[in-house]
Amino acid sequence: MHDELPFRQIHLDFHTSEAIDGVGADFDPEVFAETLVQAHVNSINIFALGHHGWIYYKSERFAEAIHPHLDTDLLPQQIAACHARGIKAPLYVSVQTNERLAQLHPEWRVMTPEGKLFGPAPYEDGFWHLLCLNTPFVDTLKAFVDDVVQTLPVDGFWFDIVDVRDCSCWYCRQGMVAQGLEPSRLEDRIRYGRQVLHTFVNDMTAFVRERVPEALIFYNAGHVGPRHRPMLDAFTHLELESLPSGGWGYLHFPITARYTRTLDKEFLGMTGKFHTAWGDFHSYKNEAALAFEVYHMLALTAKACVGDQLHPRGVLDPPTYDLIGKVYAQVEAKEPWCAGARGVAEIGVLTPEAFDPGISRGQVDFRPIMGAVRMLQEGKHQFDIVDDASDFTPYKVLVLPDKVPVEGALAAKLRAYLDAGGAVIASFASGMDAAQTAFTFDPLGVALVGEGPRDPSGALVRGKEYPAHNYAEYVLPREALGAGLPLTEHVMTMRGMLVRADAGVEVLADGVAPYFDRTYKHFCSHRQAPSSGRVSHPAVVQKDRTIYFSHPIFSQYQVKAPRWCRQLFLGALARLLPDPLVQVDAPTATLAALNRQPQHDRLVLHLLHYVPERRGEAFDIVEDVVPLYAVPVSVKVDRPVTAVTCEPQGEPLTFDQAGGRVTFTVPRVEGHQMVVIALPEDL
Fold it and tell me: Smallest Cα–Cα separation from 53: which of 134, 128, 153?
């Protein structure tokens, strides 16, 4: 792993229609570069080829692709001006969205199983007429990349819109048949689509490296997750596109970052300056929101990138760079305590995404992992997101949220992990076979005793949310698990698995049935029927170093955020992890992330307190920074501590060290505060 990526990057969109004239007419290279310098920017992705299919340099080989109203040789001037000031300038290339080629070559487009060409209808707006990576389009793209490297100095390539497609075009159908696959089967099409993607990515990387061996290379699909693992060698680094107001939300970035940081690849986060999402001209994100998003990147060991969009006439917007500059000036000051940092974690959360058959980010059920991340963040725990290929040995506890099937190799790996002293918390269908017909992981100490009720349509109700909580049931915690909660029934509006506990397994909470399920035949009041007081099955059990929840508590928390779900989970976690790495007495909105800088023999604790708020209907915003004062902190350390300081202020803190922990009080957290714990060098 290396640390060569700049900390302060811009992604400069320039998807400019052929209906706009005077493209680049007002571009001034000196003003352009100086604006970046004043905003503390040291890297910028600039456009060679955008979604509309136009290029922005005077190519002889691809003269027909030059934007018809390009007023100046824009791209070479941008590169030269940046390089003159030590600013890197990787080149953006749109791959599967190229509207010009999609119109010229409809035979290269992705085709749906129904025989329709993917994308907007003829009289709808938009350029999402996706091109298939299994067609001669790839030869044209390679020729373009070759032209770029022959014409321009290249720091790297940022290839956009590169993902698996469910394609039934002629080329894909022929390819599937040749491999003995059945094109009419979705599973076979996706299997082939992944093969096509992997072939393209590996081949294009080899193509680039033959010409520019040191080039940075990244392929963007709008999400980084377990499906990237087979292709990692083709990436020099990873970039996490995650605009909270653009459909990603504020939980997407920590999910991807906490997974990505385990992959031994340098990475950066990407948000945008836009109030909403990409392409939102003349809008401005609140400064507090941009600060939170960027400082969160630093806290999770990522470098930072902020998306912007260049006006067609080639002029950067001064207020935008005033905004970015205020945040990036602080990033520059914080970099010494972030460079080379590695996350410290004692909990691994096995992501259900690794087992979800969804093709794209929008099709995957992220509720289990989102709920788990929320709970752990609110509990100030130190954790990574892992998959079945990850090394489990660094973690004291593994969490399997709601939908992690455990069979074959994974079952054996988890048993070995438990035998070595690890602990496991699982919920709902985790620990079952993929079809959810039986528990296949015996260490949980439970067995399925029935599939549970079905709704009037005949569908199983377990794990589903109904409008009136029709199939709710109740959890009654026992004293061993009920700390901080009244020992009474607590509603679960997602029905759980009907299980029995093996002999000798400790029951920590009971499942209590309602009087009846709410249907048209019988109902009570506005929503679910109340508790009948009748214990129906165990709801939470512990067997040695495993704890199992029969309900989908993580999905439940993501959907409705019942505090009792979090309290039950954190209580279970405390039974397995009584002495956590970090303890912070602060509101649940406070984030705490512990990193290690091995080259400096120090720990760096990031504390963030920003409160996203749903003010509009569409997304959360952050506007106000509410400071915290006198925040008590305790961190587990295995070496003598020599100093504790608030950085970058250089403010020393008094501290106590005893019982393997260092304790101190942070006087003020105004948005983001780093606390550095210095350790002796040679122990």
Answer: 128
Architecture of domain 8-339: Alpha-Beta Barrel (3.20)
State the amino acid at position 635 in one-letter form.
V
pLDDT at 361 > cutoff 90? no
101 CB neighbour count, 10 Å cutoff = 18
Nearest Cα to Cα of residue 593 among 366, 346, 393, 424: 346
- The arithmetic mean of pLDDT across residues 253-282, rounded, is 96
Cα–Cα distance, 320 to 306 (Å, whole number)? 10
Domain ranges of the chain: 8-339, 347-576, 582-678
Give strand pairing partners of 157: 91, 217
- Closest-CA residue to 10 (of 336, 343, 337, 317): 317
pLDDT at residue 683 in the model: 40
Q: Is 440 helix (H, G, I), strand (E, B) or coil?
A: coil
CB 94 within 8 A of CB 48: no
Region 582-678: CATH code: 2.60.40.1180
pLDDT tens sequence across 104-137: 999 999 999 999 999 998 899 988 999 999 999 9
Q: How far apart are CA 169 and CA 146, in angstroms?
A: 27
Q: CA-to-CA distance for 269 and 257, rounded, in angstroms?
A: 8
Rounded to whole angstroms, the Cα distance separating 457 from 441 reads: 31
Whose tokens are 């907007």? That residue is: 120
Average pLDDT of the chain, as a whole number: 96
How far, rounded to the nearest angstrom, does the alpha carbon of residue 435 sit from its chain's CA centroid? Answer: 26
**What is residue 150's three-state secondary structure?**
helix
The alpha helices in 152-213, defined as continuous H runs, are 170-178, 186-211
User: Does 682 have pLDDT greater than 70?
Assistant: no
Using one digit for the tens of pLDDT, what is the confidence trace for 482-521? 888 999 999 999 999 999 999 999 999 999 999 999 999 9
Reference 393, options 420, 412, 426; nearest CA is: 420
Summarize pLDDT for 126-182 with one digit per residue, the tens.
889 999 999 999 999 999 999 999 999 999 999 999 999 999 999 999 999 999 999
* CA distances for 422 relative to 393, 575, 577, 579, angstroms: 8, 13, 10, 15
Q: Strands 661-669 and 628-636, how do they pair?
A: antiparallel
- Give me the residue label for tokens 């992690």: 404
β-strand partners of 413: none
CA proximity to 8, closest of 255, 297, 319 = 297
* Cβ atoms 305, 239 nearer than 8 A: yes
Show the beta-strand stretches assigned E in 220-332: 238-241, 267-272, 303-309
Tell me, what amino acid is at 24?
A: G
Which of the four CATH numbers 3.40.50.2300, 3.90.1150.10, 3.40.50.880, 3.40.50.11540 does domain 347-576 have? Answer: 3.40.50.880
Question: 3-class SS at 560?
Answer: helix
**What's the pTM?**
0.96
